[in-house]
Amino acid sequence: MKKVFLNGAIPSDMIADMIKKHSTKTDIGAHAIFLGQVRSDDVNGKKVIGIEYDAYKEMAEKEFHEIREESFQKFPITCLHIYHSMGLVKTGEISLCVFVSSKHRKASFEACEWIVEQIKKRVPIFAKELFDTNDYQWKENTP
């Protein structure tokens, strides 16, 4: 099973490096990339300044693996990378990266959307929204 979790935010140079490495794979015609970024929401007059992620790692890694395997059976994709942050991610930083490659754009678009929705529904990841008032609330996943 591939490791999915990274400590802290997903660095932009890592995303750029994935794009660069895929340029040598000439059977690929499309990439769909989803980047989940932490928003500075206003919640009851308090500003979100970051999210602290936690998970049942073993269970979550298993679920990520199953989503990955299902993706290759469901869609004609050639490559898939999934990374999710663990720990603190500040507003404006990336906490989820889904990178899907295929011969044609439609497959990569459809697979990417399906994968993100499956992650939200199935993977036991917990998010604590941190506020500028030095308190927090547990965030619920929404579609």
Structure description:
It is a single chain. With 143 residues, the protein is α+β, with helices and mostly antiparallel strands. The protein has a single domain (30-139), classed as Molybdopterin biosynthesis MoaE subunit (Aldehyde Oxidoreductase, domain 3, Alpha-Beta Complex), CATH 3.90.1170.40. It has 3 helices and 8 strands, in the order βαβββαββαββ. Helix 2 runs antiparallel to helix 3. It starts with a strand and ends with a strand.
Number of helices: 3
**Strand tally:** 8
Please give the radius of gyration in angstroms: 16 Å
**Shape estimate:** globular
Helix content: 25-40%
Largest sheet: 8 strands, mixed
Short key terms for the protein model shown above:
alpha+beta; Aldehyde Oxidoreductase, domain 3; eight-stranded mixed β-sheet; globular
Short description:
The protein is of the alpha+beta class and 143 residues long. The protein has helices at 12-22, 57-74, 105-122; strands at residues 5-7, 30-37, 42-43, 46-55, 77-90, 94-102, 125-131, 136-139.
